Amino acid sequence: MREKIIDALQSALKQARQKGQLRTDSLPAVTLDLPKRPEWGDLASTVAMSLASSEQRSPQDVARIILENVDQREVLFDRVEIAHPGFLNMTVKRALWLEVLPQIEEQGEAYGRADFGKGRRVLVEYVSANPTGPLHVGHGRGAAVGQAISNLLAAAGYDVLKEYYINDAGRQMKLLGASVYARYQELCGRPASFPEEGYRGAYIETVAGHVRDRVGTTLLDSPADQAEQRCRDQAYEELLGLIRQDLRLFGIEFDSWFSEASLASSGGVEQVLEELRKRDLLFEQDGALWFRSSAFGDEKDRVVRKQEGEYTYLASDIAYHRDKLRRGYDLLIDVWGADHHGYIPRMEAVVQAYGYPKDRLRVVLVQMVNLMRGGRKVEMSKRAGEFITMRELIDEVGADATKFFFLMRRSDTHLDFDLELAKQQSAENPVYYVQYAHARISSLFRVAEERGIPVPKPRETDLDVLTHPDEFGLIRKLSAYPSVVHASAAALEPHRITFYLQELAGLLHTFYFKHRIMPPAADLEAPDAERFVKDADASTRQREQVTPGLTAARLTLMRQVQRVIRNGLGLLGVSAPDRM
RNA sequence: GCGCCCGUAGCUCAGUUGGAUAGAGCCCCAGCCUUCUAAGCUGGUUGUCGCAGGUUCGAUUCCUGCCGGGCGCACCA
Fold this sequence. Notes:
CATH topology of the largest domain: Rossmann fold
CATH class of the largest domain: Alpha Beta
Number of domains: 3
Strand order of the largest sheet: 7-6-5-11-12
Shape: flat
Number of strands: 15
């Protein structure tokens, strides 16, 4: 539907140019907006205004020219007006709007998908938490955002790979091993000094206990290095397992788990740095090895190998991103905690250092989550080991609500997560509000089936009986869905879907309340429908009579609303229940 | 000090490449279930879009300065 209008305007522009009425040689992309007020029609375009300055004539003149060149005006529009200062306000033919319904039905799951990704390959990396402990709430938000962005890009026609980068090398892992080893010794009755910056969570003791279960006290007699290594391996395996389990519970999936250690062990770091050296982007100073990142806009150069000869974290990250680039992705997306934002210029420098454009990498920042209970912030301190894990959060409020809440705000703004609200089963809870809309529609079809009310295909239904403004409100909203998905994917902003779904659900609930889809059950037994119509004053609710034709058409409409809600929730990774 | 992000209704936030009279939810108040799911609906109140300039036919949106908040400025990860 929208495509038809856009095409029509676009060819009008072309025609006008051919006739010499417009002189610009670059025609702008035609976009359609939803006007705020009904008297402005049901679609609006601002092309004329955006062309006005380059044409050096008034927006109204340009609008008039465009309008003159629209073929088939009578077929497409009931009315087109030029409004001040140059809006094209269009009232589209009813038949065109109605066409949206069979389209959704036919496209089904694919409705809303686009192909602007054109099969380009994108790698989305997210979560990537160190396997040194359970996932916390912040990781959860990153997981929800990363997954939703992946889904969006897939819907936009990209070929998506979801990857988890396992930081299984370096100091943190050593500390982890040392922490477990210390606890292990304590469990075995030998006093041990705990590493200063070690991991103090209770799960460390659990792991230590498992080590002892497996090997008894034999590690006490092994050299400390070996013993620590053993503890580290055990901890790694267990904690990564926990992370995987939590993610599975949360409904987050990855196609690929990439190990940092595998880079180092395969000599990848040296090799990759050698490439930089050849490009004269590495230099030695003060006994350390530096990456000339300032050549690409970073504020200063960065150390990749310390004086002591150890590689920095950046070195692995260079190797990792080099690897991702080498794997041939057209776009890399990194989902990071917002506290790493200072790292962005560095990584952009890396991408450019290897000869790729800066925008080959897009970093999505995810801000902190404040858990709120009863209007008060739940204090968390990582130092004291007092933080709510992702697992606890999911156990308390459920995976669906958790994801939805994480995706309700732009990811780069702080999020206040109201635990009580997320659990509440009421209209105040946006998750249930949207899911309930879906469940209500499912229920309609169950009832229809029970009563033997036919549910024909849209193409076999006379949709022309849909004339009520509320019906068109829904249809218009449905028709906007693909452009919402498109914009959301292009901006890497899943929250737009969340907002859209709340609006659509709102329209559905209002519609459901105000209108009848099927005749009341009582009519079947006692077909004196009058009693439902007589005292229409008592309530505005559902007093209208419906003919079988209207029932069929409205069921069709409901079917498509349900479809779009399901597709939208699917993008967010939230389930669309049939019963609640 | 330098850099990045943010500042929109009492609260939490949207605001679609710069568009028309800036929206939603929460909170508060008053109503609505004999019917297809009340996990729902209807109505009511709310704004110097942080401040001051600039660009523009038009600015919440772009630019500059200032104020306020957050984060980052490691040979940590």
